Fold this protein.
Amino acid sequence: MKKIIAYIFVLLIVAIITIGSTYAFFTASITEAPFTSQTHQLEVIYTGDTAISGGLDLVRDKNGGHHREVSIGLSENSVGAAANLYIHVESITSTLATEALTWEIYKKVNNQEELVKTGTFVDCGAIDAAKSKCTAGKRIYMITGLELTTTPQSFVVYIWLNGEKAGNEVIGATFKGYIGAETENVSGVLQ
């Protein structure tokens, strides 16, 4: 008889534990703290007069040719980025794709122009590829890997036909293009 009472007592304890845990499981409420996140995106501000077209006269220096000013920077909450500035050749007469058609890019610092790079329209092509004579659709990369910040950086690009390197063969020749920028996201390393 004592064994039967012990079995009933154990059975009753197991039943109470089972019912209690089942009740607790189904009535428990789980609360989570709200999850908020702010994502950032790449947002570049690129401004300026970028089109290059019109007549090219034989001149002695950059002041007689075309010049365009562009500015590039990041918006306030943008992720980090680097930029490449280039001249995109839309059309060019083959007689102009020489060392006579010259370009220079200057960075504006405190209203002064500092020479960054100079080149000609002989060398066109992708950044890390072999360069070739400029034709329609090709690019001249003037600056590569420019680290962008929220403070805009201004550049002045000069394009002129150097009269000391060309003659009558360029009369009637035409060029049309624009100054462009391409950017890529730059990831940092957390420390």
